[in-house]
């Protein structure tokens, strides 16, 4: 009987973890629709800094208060995850800005894209890809698959 109750507890914990993951994904999708308007209103750095500090404050508050009510604790953490989701999404904009700035200062973006396009076209030509064909041969499809699989095995 003891083993059965531990197994039930394990499955219940897995169920809760799945629900939590789904909730985090949905909250990220929810906040994604507001990132652009928040950023335009307050600025990237300001809104991102506020979100990071706000999420940290909520997590510290949840720890310090030692909330006993699971519903209140869950709501507090959901708000923290939504705020942290905003920061995570806006962080990708920071990275993109840094990359764009690097390319503008170095002038390497156009050259790099041209080389990448040439290499992709050369590889497709080598395996027998026919541009504009309605359907490619099975050998071409297999070669593309094998090329992709060989790049994934690193």
Automatic annotation (TrEMBL):
The keyword Membrane applies. InterPro entries: MFS_trans_sf (IPR036259). It holds the Pfam family MFS_2. The chain crosses the membrane at residues 12-35, 47-65, 71-95. Keywords: Membrane, Transmembrane, Transmembrane helix. This is MFS transporter. It comes from Aerococcus urinaeequi.
């Amino acid at each position: 009987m003891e083993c059965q109750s531990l197994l039930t507890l394990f499955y219940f914990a897995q169920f809760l973890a799945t629900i939590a993951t789904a909730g985090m994904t949905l909250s990220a999708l929810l906040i994604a629709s507001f990132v652009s308007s928040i950023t335009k209103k307050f600025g990237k750095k300001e809104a991102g800094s506020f979100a990071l500090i706000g999420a940290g404050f909520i997590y510290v508050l949840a720890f310090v208060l030692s909330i006993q009510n699971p519903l209140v604790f869950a709501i507090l953490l959901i708000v923290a995850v939504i705020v942290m989701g905003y920061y995570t999404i806006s962080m990708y904009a920071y990275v993109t800005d840094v990359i764009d700035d690097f390319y503008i200062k170095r002038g390497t973006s156009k050259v790099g894209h041209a080389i990448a396009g040439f290499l992709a076209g050369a590889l497709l030509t080598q395996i027998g890809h026919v541009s504009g064909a309605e359907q490619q041969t099975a050998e071409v499809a297999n070669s593309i698959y094998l090329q992709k699989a060989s790049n994934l095995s690193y």
